[in-house]
Amino acid sequence: MSRQFLDRLRIFVTAGSGAAGNPAIRGKGGDGGSVYLEVKDDYSLSRLLRENPSKRFKATHGKEASKRRFQLIGQNGSDLIIPVPSGISVLLGGQGNFAGSTPGTKFVPVRLGDLDKSKQRLLVAQGGLGGCPQTGYIGTAGQSHAVILDLKVSAG
């Protein structure tokens, strides 16, 4: 069994959507879960790919406010935490659903940050807001896009 060394990996992340609120009871829908990257010791990009060959990661959606279940506030979606190795640069790359972007627009990769310390976390996709009076009780979509994990290799 040969092991492949990866120094760059493109993954696809989708945050959960916010759930609908209920205007009849002025109930607020639950927020969608967000997607985070977190440094895990003794981890590699090869292992991440081996454990998740589809390279697709999705947080859960929020739950609706319900008159029948007497829930004025819907349950929030669960956040998703993706383990990554230490020493990576995180780039937002490819096309996707970005706040303020127009669909189909070419997108130049943008550096989101670097992950160098154990247990360090970085938000890569924000979950949608649950429906409330300000949004007309309609939940908003969570962010969805490609993220490039670029391992910083140094001589020494």
UniProtKB/TrEMBL annotation:
Domain of life, source organism: Eukaryota
Protein name: GTP binding protein 10
Organism of derivation: Fasciolopsis buskii
A GO term for molecular function: GTPase activity
Obg domain location: 3-154
Coiled-coil region(s): none
GO BP: any one term: ribosome biogenesis
A GO cellular component entry from the record: mitochondrion
Signal sequence, start to end: none
